[in-house]
Amino acid sequence: KFVVKPLRTRRFYAGFANVVMSKTYTPFFGEHARLMQAIKQGRYRMAYVADNKTDKPEADVGVVFSKDVPYFYMYSPQAVEEFLALVPHKIDRNQNDVNGFEQICLRSFPQLKSNKDWHQRRTIIFKLMGINFVSRFTSMMIRKLDERAEKWMP
């Protein structure tokens, strides 16, 4: 997993002329050597991402690895537009206008079709987040504010 997945991903994206990747990638560690080099030089620790772009100025997308996880950096407006075109705008319910990678990842929450299980998962997530927790205190807060307003003198 730590060797095969990154190497296959790098080999796939190396075929695109508008994609830049680090030349100093090492399996298991990813870009850790370049990160440590930037820190020793007193530069920002993610400076190697900008260095990748200067290595290949015509690149639209950069692929950087942290261990076996690829991160995609979009350097041009055209790359951002193409990415946003991949995001579905409506599945079978109203969607947020939020765009992100979860929108295009298979089996992510926004990609699931609406059914009984989807509704149950959404309800559980909202309960865990405590979104409706505060709403039960709204009437008490209004009552207390009214009491304070009655006692307030200019």
Spell out the key features of this protein.
single chain, 154 residues, mainly alpha, 2 domains, three-stranded mixed sheet, 6 helices, 10% strand
Please give a structural write-up.
The structure is a single chain. With 154 residues, the protein is mainly α. It folds into two domains: 4-75, no CATH class; 116-151, no CATH class. It is 44% helix and 10% strand. The chain has helices at residues 4-14, 32-40, 47-55, 77-86, 116-129, 138-151; strands at 19-21, 61-66, 69-74.
**Count of the domains:** 2
Give the rounded overall mean pLDDT: 77
Order of strands, main sheet, comes to 1-2-3
N/C terminus separation? 69 Å
Shape: elongated
Summarize the structure.
It is built from six helices and three strands.
Topology diagram in text:
Blueprint: H1 4-14, E1 19-21, H2 32-40, H3 47-55, E2 61-66, E3 69-74, H4 77-86, H5 116-129, H6 138-151
Parallel strand pairs: 1-2
Antiparallel strand pairs: 2-3
